[in-house]
Amino acid sequence: MKSKSSSLPHREANSAVDLQERQFGLSRRAVVVRLAWFSAAALVLLPVSRAGAQLQKLYEDLTGTAAAKRLVIVFADVSGSIPAEDWAIYAETYKNRLTSLKGGDRLILAKIAEDSLGSFAPAIDRTLADTGRLRPDRTDHEKAQVELNDAFEKLRSAPPAKATLILDALTLAQQLIEQDQTRRPQIIILSDMLEYSHIANFEKSSVGAKEADRLIERQKKQGLLPNLHGAEVFVAGAKAPKSEKFAEVQAFWLRYFKEAGAVCEAGMYGRPALSFTTR
Fold first, then answer.
1. Where are the beta strands (DSSP E) in the chain?
2. Is the pLDDT of residue 26 over 50?
3. How high does pLDDT run on average in the chain?
4. Partner of 176 at 20 to 30 A CA spacing, among 47, 80, 185, 263?
């Protein structure tokens, strides 16, 4: 049997070990806290530097806080009935969208014409760089702005179309969205919204509730009602000869967007140019 005196060194050794472990644990936590503080300080103090941009990107990737990249599909009505004042609305809306693009966003510009679906060829399809390196990304974004503006001006000066196939353009939008499911889709329609095609003629025909029912049902049966996968839809330049006709056409399109699984809320459809300040 061991004496009490022989167990004292053992107890003291255990106490020393416990103390070291506690001190080590505190030191390790202190290091973690200091690293976290340093990272936060770097994000605040270096927002415009290359290191700050890369650290911001790394932080967003690790925490899942990065804003979703956007797929912006812009359809411009190039029919011969579009006057200069309408093009001014289109141009302002387009410019406002360009200035709010961010790294990783992709913009596709296309025309609404008699061949919107049958022979699609975008005026431009451009993705903004998102490398996390400030200077190269900024240079690419500035270059993209020039390219996107030039594409719009070329589209505006192109020969006028003979028809306005907005319905076909939305079917095309579904295909583009399904080919790029990594981005949040937005559709911008620059048009008076008066469909003039083999499907319907909104200028001469009524698009009231009953007519809308028939048209939407026919689109469903023919497999032509698109699935826009929750895309936000924006309309600028909408108009009609009379206020009653404007309201009738607007009601049709809002319903059609909803049936197609898209979102078009108050302030997203109308005549004036759009600002996209919060989008």
1. 70-77, 106-112, 124-127, 184-190, 232-236
2. no
3. 83
4. 80
Which amino acid appears at position 242 of this protein? K
- State how far the Cα of 106 lies from the Cα of 177, in Å rounded to an integer: 11
pLDDT band at residue 45 using 50, 70 and 90 as cut-offs:
very low
Question: What pTM was estimated for this model as a whole?
Answer: 0.78
**Edge-to-edge strand ranges of the sheet holding 124-127:** 124-127, 106-112, 70-77, 184-190, 232-236
Phi, psi of 188 (to 5 degrees): -115, 120
Q: What is the pLDDT of residues 65-92, one digit of tens each?
A: 457 899 999 999 999 889 999 999 999 9
Rounded to an integer, the average pLDDT of 265-277 is: 93
Quote the CA–CA distance of 174 and 75 in Å, as a whole number.
Answer: 13
Q: Please state, in angstroms and rounded to a whole number, the distance separating the CA atoms of residues 267 and 264.
A: 8
The residue whose two tokens read 């620059």 is: 190
- Side-chain-side CA neighbours of 176 within 13 Å: the count stands at 28
